[in-house]
Design brief:
heterodimer; A: about 200 residues; mainly alpha; 9 helices; B: about 30% helix
Chain lengths: ~200, ~60
């Protein structure tokens, strides 16, 4: 195990405070990624432990949200490879936990949105989550995913087009996780992620 | 952290970056996506996380060997 604590007590305390503050964001990102609140929280806990162990690699002053998202994402991809999240989306849970935004005349049913999101291929879903929900720039999202900015733009564009089509038609297909093309994309992502696994915060 | 959480529905003060340059208007559901995210961010932290944070100070977690 990697010694987690080469820095002084005050730096450790600062790190812990920052880590604590970012937990709600990790939970939101994880739930968007894997769709299930219980598994999302497991994933966040796993990521927190990894982040804690790797705290010497975090550069104070940089974005801890981006740094921990990389760790969370790698944990998710690893778990996906073990099939942990495939086909386990629980719609009734989503219905219960989601709330509609106040003050919209005809609110889009957030459960529909959530479900539509879950039908997207994972790499497009995460790109949209980072940019459209998390408020990251394309550049930041590209750094988190370890891909080119243009790739992120393309993924976000495709994700948006797919969601718009689904929500306008009111036809939200089943999850695409068993879809051959989506699956291939996942596996490719996994390979890329595995190559970077050791260096969650490179650059 | 509070600074980047704008309330949904107020178009002028969105915490979002500038709209992407693909030329498409922001789809109707874009606020919903942000609302989904923010609704989770605003949830109270489950006790399991508080427990975990307490355990982080346990020296046995910090690679004592």
């Amino acid at each position: 195990m990697i010694p987690g604590n080469k820095r002084g007590p005050s730096e450790t305390a600062n790190f812990k405070r920052e880590l604590t503050a970012v937990i709600p964001h990790l939970r939101a990102f994880a739930r968007g990624l894997c769709g299930r609140p219980d598994m999302a929280d497991d994933l966040v806990q796993e990521a927190l432990l990894k982040a804690w162990a790797a705290q010497d690699r975090f550069e104070p002053g940089t974005s801890i949200r981006a740094w921990t998202f990389v760790i969370l994402r790698n944990a998710y991809l690893t778990d996906m490879r073990r099939n942990r999240f495939r086909g386990e989306y629980d719609e009734t849970v989503a219905e219960r936990i989601l709330v509609a935004p106040a003050g919209q005349e005809e609110p889009i049913h957030l459960a529909d949105l959530h479900r539509a999101l879950q039908t997207l291929p994972p790499e497009r879903r995460e790109a949209l989550l980072l940019v459209g929900a998390g408020g990251f720039s394309y550049e930041e999202a590209a750094a988190i995913c370890g891909c080119a900015v243009g790739t992120i733009k393309s993924r976000v564009g495709r994700a948006r087009a797919a969601l718009t089509a689904m929500l306008e038609d009111g036809s939200i297909p089943q999850r695409s996780m068993d879809d051959a093309e989506a699956h291939r994309a996942i596996l490719q992502e996994l390979d890329e992620a595995a190559a970077r696994q050791e260096e969650p915060a490179a650059d | 952290m509070a600074a980047d959480k704008q309330k949904v529905g107020s178009e002028k003060v969105r915490g979002h970056r500038a709209p992407e340059k693909t030329g498409q208007a922001k789809p109707e559901w874009a606020d919903g996506l942000r609302a989904l995210y923010d609704s989770i961010v605003d949830e109270p932290l489950p006790d399991s996380f508080k427990d975990l944070l307490e355990r982080l100070d346990d020296p046995s977690l910090n690679g004592s060997s």
